[in-house]
Specification:
About 50% of the residues lie in helices and about 10% in strands. By secondary structure, the protein is mostly helical. Strand 9 and strand 10 form a beta hairpin. Helix 5 packs parallel to helix 7, helix 7 runs antiparallel to helix 8 and helix 11 runs parallel beside helix 14. The N terminus and C terminus are likely disordered.
């Protein structure tokens, strides 16, 4: 029996399951009532018809696929479904979601934004590997999707501005949001030369040595002038970190270690935990698209925490950033009252937009809840389930925001 003076170790896998159940039950639905499909509503409470006229957030759905793959990997490890034996497995939902994305996107996975497509390519690659591990059909279909998307990345990764990947089909902006996940995708599919070239371009053109992180991008003006977009966002650091780790080699690993240190110095905020202890948690960026940003960073920090090629100190810092952020989000969760319109298919939890703010303030009863922020919390909890076994110490004191 655990002493009352000693906190029991957190079961991050169980907590990630609770987040997975909350998101899939609260936001998940069939697309156009079609069997064999799955899609997430952008906001709850809302009706199916109202959802159809909302903006189409392709990349939110791509990250939903990634979260389901995380849950599916944990299902495979323990031999039990995240939402009980009578409901679809996470892998089945993810496969239906990919179908839903293609149908909702007018029978194609191609759109105008290369970063959107890169996130879907990464998530379907992981889904294909999950399908292979579970010996379920569908991997060929996912491979066809990725072949189509690879052609898009090849066309967008040009010599203009010395390299990098365009953000959109307008081809007037090369940036970290597109270049980094495309580099990670190339690295994971064996095209290491292209991946390294993209990573080197990011370091040459967009690395800010003062902060040790990557700026947003280079925009081509109407007169041909090149303008630096110098903002530093949390989510941009994540796929750069992932690409550096995937490529390996000491120079890339040294850059990865420096990036983890920089995130700890510049992209954290203080939060008071239930124990009364003040912890450094990852900075979050609000609602809308920004509601996903920090979850993406946490995903790749968890990979750093588990990577034995990195210095122990770096791994400890990465793990601490993930665990402390997850703990703050978990402690700040709000249980949905069964009488609330949000309470679909059983009890759920709502997580805050910011780890330092409880969900009862961010999303009080009666407030509409955005999918992006709940996916973010789920991602952080999944990252904690991965990083929880790594040794972790508190990260160095933060210097505050960079933008």
């Amino acid at each position: 029996m655990t002493s009352p003076d000693v906190a029991a170790p957190a079961d991050w896998s169980a907590r990630a399951d609770e987040a997975a159940r909350s998101v899939t039950r609260m936001f998940g639905q069939r697309l156009f009532f079609l069997p064999g499909t799955h899609i997430a509503a952008i906001e709850r409470p809302s009706g199916r018809l109202k959802n159809l006229v909302r903006p189409w957030h392709y990349w939110w759905q791509a990250h939903y696929v990634d979260c389901l793959v995380d849950a599916g990997r944990r299902e495979l490890a323990r031999g039990a479904r995240f939402d009980g034996g009578n409901r679809p497995s996470a892998g089945q939902l993810a496969s239906r979601l990919v179908t839903g994305i293609r149908l909702r996107n007018f029978l194609t996975v191609v759109n105008n934004y290369y970063d959107d497509m890169a996130w879907l390519a990464l998530s379907t690659l992981r889904l294909e590997k999950l399908a292979e591990a579970t010996r379920r059909p569908g991997s060929r279909r996912h491979a066809r999707i990725r072949r189509s998307l690879t052609l898009q990345f090849d066309s967008a990764s040009t010599d203009d501005l010395g390299g990098g990947t365009f953000w959109s089909t307008k081809r007037d902006f090369k940036n970290t949001p597109a270049t980094a996940p495309v580099a990670l995708y190339y690295a994971r599919t064996g095209n290491t030369a292209k991946a390294q070239a993209l990573v080197d371009w990011l370091h040459a053109k967009l690395f800010d040595p003062a902060h040790g992180m990557y700026q947003d991008g280079l925009r081509i003006g109407s007169n041909g002038e090149v303008v630096l977009e110098a903002a530093i966002y949390t989510y941009n650091q994540g796929p750069v970190l992932g690409a550096l780790l995937e490529l390996g080699g000491q120079p890339n690993l040294d850059r990865a270690a420096g990036l983890v240190d920089a995130v700890a110095r510049h992209l954290t905020r203080p939060a008071t935990l239930a124990s009364g202890r003040t912890a450094a948690v990852l900075r979050c960026d609000g609602t809308g698209d920004g509601g996903l940003f920090t979850g993406i960073l946490a995903r790749y920090l968890a990979l750093a925490a588990a990577d034995g090629r990195l210095p122990d100190r770096t791994r400890a810092i990465a793990a601490a950033l993930v665990i402390e952020t997850a703990q703050a989000l978990w402690e700040g969760r709000r249980a949905v009252d069964p009488a609330e319109p949000l309470a679909r298919q059983g009890a759920q939890l709502v997580f805050s937009v910011f780890p330092e703010t409880p969900a009862s303030r961010a999303y009080p009863a009666g407030a509409a809840v955005e999918l992006s922020t709940q996916l973010q919390a789920w991602m952080v909890l999944e990252a904690a389930a991965t990083a929880g076994d790594a040794p972790h110490d508190p990260p160095p004191r933060t210097n505050g925001r960079t933008n």
